[in-house]
Amino acid sequence: MTDLLQDAALPFTGDALTSLLSPSLRLLGLGEPTHGVEAFPELRNELFRHLVEHEGYRSIAIESDCLSALTADAYVTDGTGTLDAAMGGGFSHGFGSSPANRELLRWMRAHNEGRPAHERLRFYGVDGPLETAGAASPRLSLTALYGYLADRLALPWSRERLDELLGPDDRWTSPAAMYDPAHSVGRTPEARELRLIADDLGALLTAHTPLLTATAAPDDFWRAGLHARTAAGLLRYHAAMADATPTRFDALLALRDSMMADNLDAIVRREARRGPTLAFTHNTHLQRDISGMRFGGRPVRWWSAGAIISARLGDQYAFAASAFGTRGTDVPAPDTLEGLLSALPHPRTVIAPDRLRPALTRAPVPRVPADHTYFSLDPATVDRLDAIVFVREI
Length: 394
What we know:
Pfam families: Erythro_esteras (PF05139). GO terms for molecular function: hydrolase activity. This is Erythromycin esterase family protein. Keywords: Hydrolase. The chain has 394 residues and is α/β, with parallel strands linked by helices. It has two domains: 3-57 and 261-393, EreA/ChaN-like  fold (3-Layer(aba) Sandwich); 134-244. Helix content is 46%, strand content 16%. It is built from 18 helices and twelve strands. The strands form three sheets. Strands 1-11-12-10-2-7-3-4 form an eight-stranded mixed sheet. A two-stranded antiparallel ribbon has the order 5-6. Strands 8-9 form a two-stranded antiparallel sheet. Helix 7 packs antiparallel against helix 8 (159-166) and helix 11 (189-207) packs antiparallel against helix 13.
């Protein structure tokens, strides 16, 4: 290990990370290299507490269903329900079983207790109602948006017509549709009509913004916008599930990250007067470079939410990628970036990417991890990161 490499690294603290970032940030993305490893959400919790207490952050957004997150947010902001109920109904992807996520909600609720509404921390989900096995029915969001507008405007559709077009929810949620487009209802005549209705309802929400914001609670208008984005996004996603072309899976990944980007964009705009937001998802959803993986024996590439939001926010967005060294018997080779970083003296380290490359005596090779769920750092793109957070052993 060279002295230059050691000079590029600091022991992990909130101060060490933020010292590498612009003070004008509106959104800080902290990525994790794999799911299900508590070391990374625990590190996120530590960082978020620092950001709240010292940097003026008032919100966090994680890779979880944006609609389910309303339950968790109601608990942390207003004390609605119980912590157990918030964990059970406030997360997707199995993340409600994470002890670190439980501690996050507990701490946020304790922090908010007794504070005025404008100072309370908010909790968001950035993902759509999507799971590996398929996508949710658009019913919840479409009918919620319809109900909000029907109470205030004259609409040309009836609730009965929506129900007729939607049909049974199990038509939409069949797991078989993820792998066989013939099982998807996303391009039926009913689905096409629903996409037009969702588009028109979203346009009405925008066109009547002055009236709606003057006569309804801001939180109600916010939720209506969330449902508008989600209904349209789900209907696009179901249409892509019905596509039989070879690039079908590329489109699904791109649509999912587009939904994430639109949610992040809306969160940043909502939080603009209160402070910046911390986003926490997998590295591949936050990186600026095009994301890639192999699926079904072929390469799949798509632009991540981070790449999209970076194009929108410019230097008001920053991304810190995390990585780890040893996990059980999975030890990085010494000529990989993770292998080189494992020689650093601290268990958790913050590395400045702009000082990393000059410190390397040789170009690292990409790591091939034993665990296929771990996405290793790409040595060729580290200069596109604002910081690296390295955990030596998990």
